Amino acid sequence: MSQQDAWSIPASGETCNRCDGPLAAGDMVTTVLHLAAEGPRREDLCATCGEMGESGEGAIFWRRRKPDDDEQKLVVDYTMLREIFGHLLQRPEEQYQRLSYLIGLVLLRKRLLRLKGFEVRDGAEVMVVTRGVGQPEILVPAPHLDAEQLVETREQLSRLLNSELPDDLDLTAVAPEEPSAS
Fold this sequence. Notes:
elongated, 5 helices, 6 strands, 3-stranded antiparallel β-sheet
């Protein structure tokens, strides 16, 4: 079983993940993302269950209106993506390092982060970025992903966010080509 299949990330459903009540177009939906050691888990909740508050330390949540089936594809909310990025950087698991790296590349391409370079720190390669001039450095683990792993991680991120990354986003243009020799 692939790592992707082990994740508990359902497609945006027609019912609330807690009370099984219907989620209709136009309803307010609270999405909760739990970052557990075994992998992320996503819940889409009705307005009532979403108002009951969030359970679980480190959970990330956001609210949105459920779109009509006829509406355009869901687009990425980059403010939310930056928030998730910060939480992922705190997780040591490889799957979260891959996701934080990919999100870092997306945020670089959208100019929401600035690349300072790639370095070896404490024996591991990291991507060094900042949020802007004069801001502290952010160290992002830089796993060397082959094309297949990059596609798989991109699919995982799309499932996690229930939205699609822009098709014109060439993530390999920012990624280092070879590991550092240091």
